[in-house]
Automatic annotation (TrEMBL):
SUPFAM superfamilies: Galactose mutarotase-like, Glycoside hydrolase/deacetylase. Keywords: Glycosidase, Hydrolase, Zinc. It comes from Nonomuraea gerenzanensis. The lineage of its organism: Bacteria, Bacillati, Actinomycetota, Actinomycetes, Streptosporangiales. It comes from the Bacteria. PANTHER family: ALPHA-MANNOSIDASE, LYSOSOMAL ALPHA-MANNOSIDASE. Its cofactor is Zn(2+). GO terms for biological process: mannose metabolic process. This is Alpha-mannosidase.
Length: 977
């Protein structure tokens, strides 16, 4: 016999256990004699002739009699009483062959008359249950089946007809391109008739990993579907991922989408109901700072049932099971905070006080089987058909997603709560589990904006290629980052972790390559277009130094001068064509003996002053009197400086001990902080690897599970040098979890910014670990930070229940006080913890005292035990920047400092002499950014917390006056010359 010690899972109840708990929680024991128990449940079930139901269950078969009303025999019976509009007390007698076993007084109470919209879909995990290609082919097969089932049930009563919601549109788009015309026509007709709905998101995204432009581009197909097939996209589904950026509201609104159904799978990893989630009523109106809003439904449980709600109550199994469980579920919704108690799906934390659900209409998701990537089934429609024949209420409707929202909007819109701001993701820590490919993706996001701008300025429409590259970026940001058991390496099913991560990460590298290719081509085309427009000059060669950011700035440009353009033996000087002044420069020769596989020539570094936004400045290469000076080796005392900052590195401690702002006369580093500035912090946790969903079973109420904390040690200064453009310090350290850590600190002359680069030679390990880089500022708490499609801050609203202990940002955080504003920016690593480091297990207690001015960059981790990579290794780079300015507005300084990382100057080689400078677009409001120039127009984004008026000027175009809503985006049409 099998020992009862062997359980099917680590304490999580299976469906039988969950369902029995629901039965127990929604019924009352009324008789208990000699081992016999009788329980009663008054349920929201109404017959067509005006009676309501009382369910009676007993541990052995009996005859159950509601005296004077109804009776039935068995262990589980339904007794019917005339509908009541006030509590009515009746007598229940339970009898066996010998007579009355027991009796009790029961109270029949008025019940709600529910409308239940059963939304049948398949949750798309691109991977997880099988390798990615296999999963996608299955989803195309599901659409074949959905088409057949819709046609098969076309003559059924309207509420019971099979309807299918395509949760993620990518399979539908692939299907429409891969099926015969007659099938496509049938699909389009069913979509127009409301039997099939294609929702807006192409797949389920970690939206906080997306850039704003990426998010908008991923919805571009909605207009294409309407043009090609005549059906609109009215709603979106956001499944599994527990959170969404505020920019999603604007992106969906711009695509004409008004509704969002979210199903957050907490999986025991998060505690939204301890952070205001118990106050988040549903449905609700989610409003962005712009004023755009969408109507949101979300599955409401802190215990992880998410998109399996309908399956849990039997709607995939059988009519009898649904008849038993669905009324109990509705009763629980109406009478208690959450329908399921603690322990469901693993989380053993406290239950939450919450008001019962107040409406009489429910959105109930169902899948064809109890699994992700499950196909369509006729069972839910069959149950709805029989149900509506049997019962007047609840009324079941086999529905598409938007059916529910239209019903709610018509009846309840004005009484729904409005919530604003970011809906911060509790799963965002997973972004740290693939740090290297994520870094490549974030670099690609920046490069694509610049590449498209340069192509547009060169008169080339690169929209299609840019869209395709963004699609690859977004596929990496899709929420399934690996197999169910990512540490395995099988060829199919949920153990195919090696295959799945290979494909996933290769997509990130391909996206970065595509972006780099497009930028490479854009620079050449831009240079060629300028060369064609210019005349002959006396220079050996020239560069057009282009500033792809919005604001004028002084910054370093790095450009390549090929040997076949100017021989490497020829001394050169760089001249600013605007002023005739010589620009100091530094050269790095590509020696063919060292690099025979790379182009031969000189990498030139120069600081170009005062380049306006979206402008170029011509820099001429002219004969020089002597070769460029070699770098000067400085004392190994760990100090470098420019006009703006003096930076000191403490070799003994292994971090920056000082960043002194010379203009403000102020130290930027908090020397009393727990961690040093830029210090490497390595945490290892005392939890075991290679257990599926282990973190859903682990609670951390103190630091007990923090098995080890270590810092970088044995710092050695490898290089301190001065060139014509600035000073640089390179330090190497040793540390746990890595072979080595290399820190590069750079200051450029004339540039009010400190650049920091960290390279880690990461060792692979399945042990649960995290790497942080600490940045303790001598400042108060942050005042603003960049989000996808918005700006966050301590006074900025967030949707109740948003994650508290970590924050995924785009690129910058700002600190402001009356004397000085400081900005910190990151390129590759989006995750931060503010003020302290928290344990990565619910309820996420802090491990250090709070320090308001400290930013911990959560560079990487492998705390996930399913879905994300089980370990990571290899050389990985993280870049940061720091800037400060007296009296600056935090949002503006944040954007300016981040531009040095995300929008570096571009040097395009030109062969003739066009104008010494040219501005292509400018805006007259300091809070409005031009994010890119595309073939469709000038793309704008506002950082302002209020609506602003902005004038957009372009040579050869009429000045456009645009009203931008708070943190809003817009396109000024008419880019083409």
């Amino acid at each position: 016999m099998t020992s009862r010690l062997l359980q099917r899972s680590l304490g999580s109840p299976d469906y039988d256990g969950i369902r029995q708990a629901l039965r127990d929680d929604t019924s009352t024991p009324v008789i208990s004699v000699r081992g016999l128990e009788v329980r009663v449940a008054v349920l929201p079930l109404f017959t067509h002739d005006g009676r309501q139901a009382v369910r009676v269950s007993s541990t052995e078969p009996l005859t159950h009699v509601l005296v004077g009303v109804d009776s039935a025999s068995g262990s589980d019976v339904t007794l019917l009483v005339p509908e009541v509009d006030a509590p009515r007390v009746l007598t229940l007698e339970c009898r066996d062959d010998a007579g009355v076993v027991g009796s009790a007084r029961i109270t029949v109470t008025p019940q709600r008359k529910w409308h239940v919209f059963v939304v049948h879909h398949s949750h798309l995990d691109i991977g997880y249950t099988d390798p990615q290609g296999t999963v996608l082919r299955h989803h195309l097969d599901y659409l074949d089946a959905a088409l057949r089932l819709a046609e098969e049930t076309a003559s059924w009563p309207d509420d019971a007809r099979f309807r299918w919601t395509v949760e993620s549109s990518m399979p539908a788009l692939k299907w429409l391109d891969a099926r015969p015309k007659d099938m496509v026509d049938s699909f389009a007709a069913l979509a127009r008739a409301g039997a099939i709905e294609v929702t807006a998101l192409p797949f389920q995204l970690h939206t906080e990993a997306c850039s704003t432009e990426e998010l908008h581009r991923q919805l571009r197909f909605t207009a294409q579907l309407e043009r090609r097939f005549g059906f609109s996209t009215r709603s979106a589904m956001h499944t599994d991922v527990p959170g969404a950026v505020v920019g999603l509201v604007d992106a969906l609104s711009a695509a004409g989408v008004r509704y969002l159904a979210a199903a957050h799978n907490w999986a025991g990893r998060s505690v939204p109901y301890l952070h205001g989630g118990d106050k988040l009523t549903r449905p609700f109106r989610w409003r962005a700072p712009s004023g755009n809003e969408i109507l949101v439904w979300f599955t409401d449980t802190p215990h992880g049932m998410a998109y399996m709600e309908g399956n849990t109550v039997g709607l995939t199994d059988s009519y009898d099971l649904a008849d038993d469980l669905l009324p109990r579920y509705l009763s629980a919704l109406a009478t208690r905070g959450y329908p399921y108690g603690p322990g469901t799906f693993g989380w053993q934390g406290p239950d939450a006080p919450k008001e019962p659900y107040e409406l009489d209409v429910l959105h109930l998701r169902v899948q064809g089987a109890h699994a992700d990537n499950a196909g369509p089934s006729i069972v839910p429609a069959t149950i709805a058909r029989r149900w509506n024949e049997q019962w007047a209420y609840p009324r079941l409707r086999s529905a598409v997603n938007s059916d529910f929202f239209e019903f709610v909007e018509e009846r309840y819109h004005d009484r729904l709560a409005v919530h604003e701001g970011d809906w911060t993701d509790w799963w965002a820590d997973g972004l740290g589990s693939g740090a290297r490919p994520l870094g490549y993706v974030r670099r690609a996001q920046s490069a694509l904006r610049v590449a498209e701008t340069l192509h547009t300025l060169a008169g080339v429409d690169a929209t299609e290629q840019v869209d395709e590259a963004y699609d690859k970026v977004a596929l990496f940001n899709e929420h399934t980052w690996g197999a169910a058991n990512p540490w395995e390496d099988a060829e199919e099913a949920g153990d195919s972790g090696g295959l799945q991560w290979t494909r996933k990460s290769s997509g990130a590298y391909a996206a970065q390559d595509d972006a780099a290719d497009l930028l490479h081509a854009g620079v050449r085309r831009f240079g060629a277009a300028l060369s064609e427009s210019g005349g002959e000059g006396g220079a050996l060669a020239s560069f057009a130094v282009f500033n792809p950011a919005t604001r004028a700035r002084t910054d370093v440009v790095r450009a390549f001068l090929p040997r076949d353009v100017v021989g490497v033996e020829v001394p050169i000087a760089l001249v600013d064509a605007r002023t005739g002044r010589t620009l100091p420069h530094h050269e790095e020769f590509v020696d063919p003996d060292d690099w025979p596989t790379r182009p031969i020539g000189r990498h030139i570094h120069a600081v170009v002053p005062d380049v306006s936004g979206f402008s170029y400045v011509r820099v001429d290469v002219v004969p020089g009197e002597s070769q460029a000076p070699e770098p000067v080796e400085l004392d190994l005392d760990g100090v470098i400086e420019n006009e703006f900052y003096r930076v000191a590195y403490d070799v003994r401690e292994g971090y920056l001990s000082s960043i002194f702002d010379k203009r403000a006369g102020r130290e930027l580093v908090n020397g009393d902080a727990a961690a040093g500035f830029g210090q490497y912090v390595y945490d290892q946790y005392a939890t075991a690897p290679h257990f599926n969903h282990l973190s859903g079973h682990v609670g951390a109420h103190d630091r007990t599970l923090l098995g080890d904390r270590a810092i970088g040690t044995h710092a050695t200064i490898k290089e301190v040098r001065r060139t014509a453009v600035g000073e640089k310090l390179v330090v190497e350290l040793r540390g746990k979890g890595v072979d080595w850590i290399r820190t590069t600190v750079e200051l450029h002359y004339g540039v009010p910014r400190l650049d920091l680069t960290y390279q880690l030679a990461k060792q692979g390990t399945p042990a649960k670990e995290a790497v942080f880089l600490a940045f303790p500022f001598a400042a108060g708490p942050p005042t603003a930070w960049e989000l996808t499609g918005g700006v966050g801050g301590p006074g900025v609203p967030r949707v109740p229940g948003s994650a508290e202990y970590m924050l995924p940002i785009r690129h910058w955080i700002a600190f402001e006080d009356p004397e000085l504003t400081v900005a910190w920016a990151t390129l590759e690593a989006p995750l931060v913890q503010l003020g302290t480091i928290h344990m990565p297990y619910a309820p996420f207690p802090p491990t250090l005292d709070q320090e308001d001015g400290t930013v911990y960059s959560w560079a990487l981790n492998n705390i996930w035990d399913t879905n994300f990579p089980a370990q990571q290794q290899g050389e990985t780079t993280f870049r940061y920047a720091v800037g400060s300015e007296s009296g600056a507005q935090g949002r503006r300084l944040g954007a300016a400092v981040a531009a040095g990382l995300t929008e570096p100057f571009v040097g395009a080689l030109i062969t003739d002499s066009p104008a010494s400078e040219e501005t292509y677009v400018s805006v007259d409001h300091p809070d409005v950014l031009v994010t890119s120039l595309g073939w469709d127009g000038v793309r704008l984004q506002s950082l302002a917390a209020e609506p602003v008026e902005v004038r957009v000027s372009r040579p050869g175009h009429e000045t456009a006056e645009v009203t931008l809503p708070a943190c809003g985006v817009a396109i000024v049409r008419g880019t083409r010359q």
